[in-house]
């Protein structure tokens, strides 16, 4: 059974940090491009970051550049999203997703097209 499970969310003060994890079962993450997305109440799901199948290409949304970092641990079959300098506007449910891609050297951060999704983890940034 293919499954992605996010964890690491929680309540953090502005300026704080969290590391989200996306653990996979039933699939090997380095066979896929992986994306992180978020959805705040009343808003559409938006792309945050992605990592290419090769692991050599990363893409970030402008609103997280310089603050968030995506990485992968092949041995643990897990992808991470390190989030620093968190702001109240980062409050959302964060999802990871996977998609098979023809070219291993790129990825995209539009939700449409991703095949496998996790259940999400809540991130709340508040004082």
End-to-end Cα distance, whole Å, is: 40 Å
SS elements, strand count: 11
Instruction: Report the portion of residues in β strands.
Output: over 45%
> Number of helix segments?
0
Mean pLDDT: 95
- Based on CA atoms alone, the radius of gyration comes out at 13 Å
Helical proportion, percent range: under 10%
Shape: globular
Q: Give the class from helix and strand content and strand pairing.
A: mainly beta
Strand count, sense and barrel status of the largest sheet are: 7 strands, mixed
Order of helices and strands: EEEEEEEEEEE
Which regions have little confidence, pLDDT < 50, spanning 5+ residues? none
Can you walk through the features of this model?
The protein has 127 residues and is mainly beta. Helix content is 0%, strand content 46%. The strands form two sheets. Strands 2, 4, 5, 6, 9, 10 and 11 form a seven-stranded mixed sheet that branches. It is globular, with a radius of gyration of 13 Å. The chain starts with a strand and ends with a strand.
Structure keywords:
about 130 residues; mainly beta; 4-stranded antiparallel beta sheet; globular
Topology of this protein?
Elements lengths: L2 E5 L2 E3 L5 E8 L7 E7 L6 E6 L6 E3 L7 E6 L4 E6 L8 E8 L16 E2 L3 E5 L2
Parallel strand pairs: 2-11
Antiparallel strand pairs: 1-3, 3-8, 4-5, 4-9, 5-6, 7-8, 9-10, 9-11
In brief:
The chain is an all-beta fold and 127 residues long. It is built from no helices and eleven strands. Strands 2, 4, 5, 6, 9, 10 and 11 form a seven-stranded mixed beta sheet that branches.
């Amino acid at each position: 059974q293919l499954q992605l499970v996010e964890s690491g969310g929680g309540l953090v003060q502005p300026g704080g940090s969290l590391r989200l994890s996306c653990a996979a079962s039933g699939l090997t993450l380095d066979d896929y491009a992986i994306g992180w997305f978020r959805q705040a109440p009343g808003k559409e799901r938006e792309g945050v970051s992605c990592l290419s199948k090769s692991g050599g290409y990363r893409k970030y949304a402008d609103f997280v550049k310089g603050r968030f970092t995506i990485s992968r641990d092949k041995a643990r079959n897990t992808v991470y999203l390190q989030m620093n300098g968190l702001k109240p506007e980062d409050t959302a449910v964060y999802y990871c997703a996977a998609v098979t891609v023809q070219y291993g050297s790129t990825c995209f951060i539009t939700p449409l097209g991703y095949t496998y999704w996790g259940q999400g983890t809540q991130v709340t940034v508040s004082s």
